[in-house]
Amino acid sequence: MPRWRSCTGSNSRTRHGPRSAGARTSARNPGGRCCRRAPSSGYHPRTKTGSQGAGMIELYMWATGNGLRAAVGMAESGLEHRIHKVDLSKGEHKRPEYLKINPAGQIPALTDSNGPGGKPLSLAQSGAILLYAAEKSGRLLPKDPARKAVALQWMMMGCSDVAGNSGVIFALENTAPEKSAPITDFFKARLTNFLRNADARLAGREFLADEFSVADIALYPVVNQRKALTGGMANLNAWRERMSARPGVQKGMAA
């Protein structure tokens, strides 16, 4: 049975092999180094491991744009959580153990043993995970209704239009680049247009919804990956630098 590597944020090292170590990140001290060694029995999808307490959130991800979006969201939320790395290159997302967690066989996925009403919750899709973390923590969503609406608009654009076009570009460039250059250029132009819109939105603003929110987290992984497309976008590039300096973003991106 596969044992996925477990860690929490960038303050814990990833262990390999039959022993799995976990670390806990507390909402009281999201940047702390509170690490405890898990039992040597390894990780099983239906068995809690380590010294986790009630309400531990388990995030299953890999270092893709979608996976990093969820990891940054969890880190910035301050919610106690554990990260499990699901190696896509080894097909771990298609193994029976993982399909019990997310039958779609995709990452990211989240389980919360203390979900709404105290009942267990399983959740997929990076946008849904990001919104769940925001609502559960009381962070990452503006209180002002207008700002909240704007934050959700940009979050959805980041999770759909921006991430979708970037994903197509990745697939084309890594399958048959010599045959797909015109199609790749088409999707690069589409993505560049969305990024220009974000650049215009950030004129005179530090964040997309005027305060740090799910909108910024949703967009950041793609902007960070597609620096080659952001030439001349001074507002967007300055925003990316501000985002990159945040400890929570650094922790999530290092997952």
Describe this structure in words.
The protein is α+β, with helices and mostly antiparallel strands and 255 residues long. Helices cover 43% and strands 10% of the residues. It has 2 domains: 5-137, Glutaredoxin, CATH 3.40.30.10; 145-253, Glutathione S-transferase Yfyf (Class Pi), Chain A, domain 2 (Up-down Bundle). The strands form 2 sheets. A 5-stranded mixed β-sheet has the order 1-5-4-6-7, with helices on one face. α1 links the parallel β4 (57-61) and β5. The protein starts with a strand and ends with a helix. The model is unreliable at 8-53 (pLDDT under 50).
Number of helices: 8
* Weakly predicted, low-confidence segments: 8-53
Give the mean pLDDT: 84
State the total count of DSSP E strands.
Answer: 7
Radius of gyration: 18 Å
What is the CA–CA distance across the termini? 23 Å
Attribute tags:
Glutaredoxin, 10% strand, Glutathione S-transferase Yfyf (Class Pi), Chain A, domain 2, alpha+beta, two-stranded antiparallel sheet, 5-stranded mixed β-sheet, 255 residues
Short description:
The chain is of the alpha+beta class and 255 residues long. Helix content is 43%, strand content 10%. The protein has helices at residues 65-77, 96-99, 126-137, 145-173, 181-201, 214-225, 234-244, 247-253; strands spanning 5-7, 22-23, 35-36, 57-61, 81-85, 109-112, 121-124.
